[in-house]
Amino acid sequence: MEYNLDSIKLLSSKMEEHQFLLTYKGNVSHDIVIAVLALAEKKMDIDGTQRSVKKKVFNVLIECLQNISYHAEVRNNVRDGLIMIGKNDTEFVIYSSNLVSNENVWSLKEKIEMINTASREELSQMYIDVMSSPGTNLKGTAGLGLIDIAKKSGNKLNYVFAPHDEHDSYFVMSTIIYSTN
Question: Under a CB-based contact definition with an 8 Å cutoff, are residues 7 and 97 in contact?
Fold first, then answer.
């Protein structure tokens, strides 16, 4: 495995900037989603996180985990993903990562850019449009989870695609939720 020194420095600086409450890497199954959510809720309760902030973090975390469990590429019968929740005095940050097919990278970038340039009102309309679309189902929701993450966090979606092999890339996303109202 080859390590990129810049990515190691970035991860190290992020770990110093945020206290990590939870880190999970592995198969993201239904049981793991439930366990990660329960652990995150318990950690936020222990930290005394405000209810309104906890609700936002919890909702964004659910969407990130669902995106991995529904959309990550299956390799060796698992949907491998990474989820990390960091916290400092002013914000929570949720990092998620999973493999996506290189065929889907362009359309995913396009969806995220459309979400990132939308106003709060436009996001609400996008959400309604996707929900009322006749082709919407659990697997193909045209970015519904991403729209919801942007709405709940009130922030842009930070993302990067890193090549994994000739078939897949890592999709890495971070979302900030401010801990002050």
Answer: no
